[in-house]
Design brief:
This protein is an all-alpha fold. It contains 7 helices and no strands. It comes from Panstrongylus megistus.
């Protein structure tokens, strides 16, 4: 048990679990960040897509607990804890793969949902619910856009030839927002591009975590095998 090879595997597994615990904290933080970043746009995103940050938070906590379990298994050289740790890693890997596949399949559905919800909420801009106006003003200001697909979408909502002031960031607040001074690009493509960019970063990070998980499974299996050999001697 005191062989150099066994000691190397033990400390490498312990180091891996520290990195794995850090990745869990990062995933947890990403979930919090996504929740805060898109909370102002929940009117467009919908409940189905807005569950993503909560999933990240739960997965981050779960990964941190699994990493702690792996550290204990490495320090105590417990065969059962290492096997359980490897099984949990495989489970997390399967869930991540399933989530990635579902996300890819739902990509077109998400884009259609965004367009539908944006069009529906645009028609309610002048209604009694001020939340619609606040959300549209926020997205048009943050993404430097106007309307769903272009600024002309507002001509069906506001009939006096003006636009919401959030479409004209350079126009003083005491002046009317006119089409010639407004942002011309629509918010739908800008919002979709932002979502796709963030999803790409999440996928890249997920692949990195998956690689770390795979290495952890190898280390855990090697150490478990060494422990079994020692116990049978």
């Amino acid at each position: 048990m005191d062989s150099i090879g066994m000691s190397c595997i033990k400390y490498l597994l312990f180091l891996f679990n520290l990195l794995f615990a850090v990745s869990g904290i990062i995933i947890f933080s990403v979930g919090i960040m996504i929740q805060q970043m898109y909370s102002s746009y929940s009117l467009f995103i919908g409940e189905k897509l807005f569950t993503l940050p909560f999933i990240f938070i739960i997965v981050g906590i779960f990964i941190f607990v699994v990493a702690f379990f792996g550290c204990c298994g490495a320090i105590k050289e417990s065969n059962y804890m290492l096997i359980t740790f490897a099984a949990f890693l495989c489970l997390i890997f399967i869930l991540e793969a399933a989530g990635g596949i579902v996300g890819y399949i739902m990509k077109d559905e998400i884009n259609e949902m965004l367009e539908t919800r944006m069009n529906n909420s645009l028609r309610e801009y002048n209604g009694n619910i001020i939340y619609y106006a606040r959300t549209w003003n926020a997205v048009q200001h943050d993404f430097s856009c106007c309307g769903v697909k272009s600024y002309t979408d507002w001509s069906y909502i506001i009939t006096n030839g003006t636009l919401p002031h959030s479409c004209c960031p350079q126009t003083p607040t005491d002046e009317r927002c006119l089409p010639e001074y407004a942002n011309k690009d629509g918010c739908l493509p800008a919002f979709e591009n932002a979502l796709e960019h963030n999803i790409f970063l999440i996928i890249a990070f997920g692949i990195s975590v998956a690689v770390v998980q795979f290495v952890g499974v190898i280390f855990a299996c090697c150490m478990s095998r060494s422990i079994r050999k020692y116990e049978t001697v």
